[in-house]
Amino acid sequence: ECKNTDYGDEDEACKFANANEMDLIVMNPGIVIGPILQPTLNFSVGVVVELTKGKDPFMSKSYRFVDVRDVSLAHIKALETPSANGRYIIDGPVIATLKDIEKILREFVPYLCIGDDKNNEDIDLDLVTYKVSVEKVRSLGIEFTPTETSLRDTVFSLKEKCLL
């Protein structure tokens, strides 16, 4: 039986599943990047585009990305695993700082203005981090794609679709 969560749509899905005697597994991904299928930007990949312009869309100084292929595989594994249940958080297990992201993006798009804002160099911000347990999703057999690979494939996909 699904438990009410007070999370809006998830709560409604839970009510529906209970009323219709269905199992419900909820996948909650973080910022999903990677190759895109559609010819337009979505929110998550738009974050990468903003980063390639030297902007920090969330002013967070660090990001956790999860690859779309990992999210897709998690959905499949949850369907195929009889013991799968409840809510799965699918967030990048590695925190990438803006400097990490800039270094990776410069490798694949060196002609862009990534990180050229010299005003932020002297600011020493403590990174506000949060802990995320990805053990539950790993129990489905998910091994996360490295952030560098996900960013590279995102950039290549954006170039291919003329969105960068």
UniProtKB/TrEMBL annotation:
Question: What keywords are annotated for this sequence in UniProt?
Answer: NADP, Oxidoreductase
Q: Which domain of life is it from?
A: Eukaryota
What name does UniProt use for this protein?
Answer: Cinnamoyl CoA reductase
